[in-house]
Amino acid sequence: MSSTEKFRSEFRTWLRSGLTGEFAALKGRGGPGREHEAFAERLAWERHMAAAGWTCIGWPQEYGGRGATLEEQVAFHEEYALADAPARVGHIGEQLLGPTLIAFGTDGQRDRFLPGIRSVEELWCQGYSEPDAGSDLANVRTRAERDADGWSVTGQKIWTSLAHESQWCFLVARTGPGTHRHEGLSYLLVPMDQPGVEVRPITQLTGTSEFNEVFFDAARTGADNVVGEPGDGWRVAMATLGFERGVSTLGQQVGFRRELEELIALARRNGAAGDPLIRDRLARAWTGLEIIRFNALRMLDGAAAGAPGPEASISKIYWATWHRELGELAMDVCGADGMLADGAPYDLGDWQRLFLFSRADTIYAGSNEIQRNIIAERVLGLPKEARA
Question: Is 261 part of the annotated catalytic residue set?
Fold first, then answer.
């Protein structure tokens, strides 16, 4: 048995014994569009995982991880999805900020923040998007000023997932007066529980509120809570996005496969599979999922070399478009039932929720337009898009 298969077997055995008792009812709960489901119970489950050493497995052992290889991380995500385990609640800290601190943080920052991420005692949100900047990170207007006691942060972020559950936010703010675009930005760690921070939930089409507006009004953070050098935030922020679009997405296609298999089963039950056009779209969805998987494996090479390459942008465009189309296909498989609510006043079914939430797939985590610009300018060498 290879080391990867041994790792896989160990985790599979632990899941079988761990997802029982009080945690058995959490199977299949949570995820994009469903983050409101059993959040407190899923948090308890994740802390249970942490106690057993199954969080942050890809981190180096010196920072509390298992030092898992990329192949072992793939096995981890696959087994987790196959077990129908609940969606993770600490993924932003574990998969985005943690690797960023390991790469760019100071020893003091690593000592202060990594243990809380690993134990899931502190949750994080990501303060990138802004109302007037959208996904154009270089256009942020939130500013931070340095004074004798630390940093004072003023501005607004939007579409901030899980801000209402988080104790900390990592954000990009303009700290260089008179600077433009990617110059003069800094990457700051800001506590959420303070008078200068206000979180306003945004009600989504699904009727739930898992992302928010966040207002900073002279919010405070310590002088030591800037990652990298002041003014070097663009480079650090880009690295975080690389982690977001890289290894952390490897398990995503496994969850997508489960959704597709459930949709195929529904099509068989309700007769939709007898429609040749539906059959053709289901077959195309299966083929597309295979492409997502192979692209994810291709990303492994880039990640093994130090950071995900342009395959990460290609992957983002492909999975976001594929998942949005799966939501549309689900509605057609449901037929007239897809237009009816299960109860009053807004009790949506799983497929309806998938359809509505997946409209946002091509926007969050870096919009498809931004990804196409990255591919055009950095990969193909095409002229840069005209910007104000």
Answer: no
